[in-house]
Amino acid sequence: MNPPDIQGLEQLEGAVLDDKASLASALRRCLMLGGYAHHQELRAWALKELEGYAADDDLPAYRRVPAALEINANVHQFGGITQYTGHRISHHQLPAPARERGVGEMVPILNGVKELEGIVARAEKSILVAPPGSAEYALIMTLQQRKAGNEGMEITSLHWDVAVASIEGVLDHIRTRLTQFVSEVRASMPPGQQNPNPAQIGDAAERAFNISAGDNATVNINAPKAQADRGATASANINEPATTSTRQPFWHRTAVIWTAVAAVAAVASAIIAWVALK
Are 116 and 76 part of one and the same domain? Predict the structure, then answer.
């Protein structure tokens, strides 16, 4: 007996090819298509991209993006205060606890696509994101400066400058993968077939996403990393990490909150709640 054909591919194709359409809408159509095909891994991938990645999930490579490390500082001298903002530093200049916890020049992008689309719509060129433990690291760096003889130096904040283009790149990678998936399904359908069957959807998912079917299969998605430019201003507040004896990258144990603001605005324009990775 031949497997039943599955409808919905045409609607998904229209959604992914319309750059003005929300990517979240396309992913919901993909989720439904995976449900009709009884393809657990395809549904799981689409749901993670919609809701964001949870504590026990492996983050796809395309959701880690490069970002510059910067500090803000106050210099107390001659009875006044001089403020310095956006001074770029190397990750080698971070205090040892930060380096041991995995803070570097890559930022994990954990949230669902709807939240990311909101950031792109509201921010201008970049947003500032404070790594977990940033207040502690700023204090350590201040003490190091004073120990070196710079008594008037106060490091007020440590943050990443994350280009909005990098977030756009994450969204574009997801849309491209969905487009490739539709293309693979179309290529597997012989002339005259109107709708795909579950086997064709499964094969297309494996080719487009490296998603393997099976009860205990893992979702493994490969994509090139987004590149960044630098630009406007934003702010971020981050919950401090819990103390742990295991040295793991910071995103395995800390919840992150992003607040994106416009270049000349003093109020927040978007808040993204990051889910802690184990």
Answer: yes
